[in-house]
Amino acid sequence: MALERRVSAPPKLQPSGAASSQQPAFVGTGRNPGINVRARPAPAARLAMAGSRGRLSAVAQLTRRPTITVVIPCYNYGHYLPACVATVLGQPDVAADVVIVNDASTDGTPPLADALAAADPRVRVIHHVRNAGHISTYNEGLATAEGEYVVLLSADDLLTPGALGRATALMDAHPSVGMVYGHAVRFSGRPPDKPRTRVSAWMLWSGSDWLAERFTLGRNCILSPEVVMRTAIQREIGGYRPELPHSGDLEMWLRAACIADIGYVGGVDQAWYRAHDTNMHSAVFRTQELDSLAVDFRERLRAFELAADHAEARIPDTERLLTRARRALAVEALTLALRSCYWGVAESWPTDELRAVALEIYPDASRLAQWRALSIHERVGTGWQRRNPISVAHEVALRTRDASREWRWVQAGR
């Protein structure tokens, strides 16, 4: 559930820990291919921000070529590497350099990475003699960033044309914003041919308001390749936490929001996120398997807990925010168990484990409406729910809610 207070005319954003900056009162002409804009925010952007404490901003063009370092960790993804690097080096509007960190790959990555570096002086390669794991590899690469801005881009993902220019334009215009993201398109096989490149609006949140939305929803709204961060902010918050191999990216974004404002480039596709069987979250974390569902909820809670500890000195009432996150995670776990009844797979679904993890995460879970509904469904049997009009209506309502959330995520990243 999103925050319910709607702000029709929110105050000007105040930088987190910095002086307020003058907001631009002009809009670009759209002649720059990397920053193709519209004069006014699209109606869809306004609707997608309803109920949020964020605000819409005018869109401005870059007036310079900012420097940006793209770190590409690579372990046995050599066959994806040339395409990934090409999408970085072909970015207009910015001066990009690439750092490939080969984590002791056993495929053809080493010579391929060296060949890419030999062909273009903007590419550097770090080779590991022994496999260090993804967290150490990420952090080593981020530590070498020399640009004003930094991106962590998996070797199997791709940037869309103009993505870096669109993101850095927002941060150039709003110095209080330390992290910008946009929509990342999931794909398998060949990437989509025609990404959206016309910016509909910039969405801006103070760091504390963006944090509040994330804790209230209990979900990560970022896939990863679509994020651009100020290198100074990355240095200040530090690297990925080794104790969070599964949800470290979520905790990283929350940590950034503790000290900086957050921006979203609306109306465009900023990255392509590849889904495949050897994707790390599928192969390592088994996120598609039933026995990992409870793990996902526990790992997300751990990310929120560590972020709350980090935010305690800067954000008021972090305990209340953490309670919101606990409740949201419990509701999601119980709703997932409920849906197994609607899907007709309750007998093979880990409903008992989902109920247990909901109670573990949120001690008052037994008082939730979803808990009571699940108990009723279990008492009457698993076949009845698929024919009962009330259950059918609830399933339709859930599908409608999910479609609304997906649309809002695409339009405004929330």
**Element-by-element helix/strand order:** EHEEHEHEHEEHEEEHEHHEHHHHHH
Sheet with most strands: 10 strands, mixed
The rounded Rg comes to 22 Å
CATH architecture of the largest domain: Alpha-Beta Complex
Mean pLDDT: 85
CATH topology of the largest domain: Spore Coat Polysaccharide Biosynthesis Protein SpsA, Chain A
- Tell me the count of domains: 2
What share of residues is helical? 40-55%
**What is the top-level CATH class of the largest domain?**
Alpha Beta
CATH homologous group name of the largest domain: Spore Coat Polysaccharide Biosynthesis Protein SpsA, Chain A
Determine the strand fraction and express it as a percent band.
15-25%
Quaternary structure state of the chains depicted: single chain
Q: Which spans of ≥5 residues are poorly predicted at pLDDT below 50?
A: 1-31, 280-288
Morphology call? globular
| Separation of the first and last Cα atoms | 11 Å
Number of strands: 12
Tell me the number of helical segments per DSSP (H or I, 4 or more residues long): 14
Structural class: alpha/beta
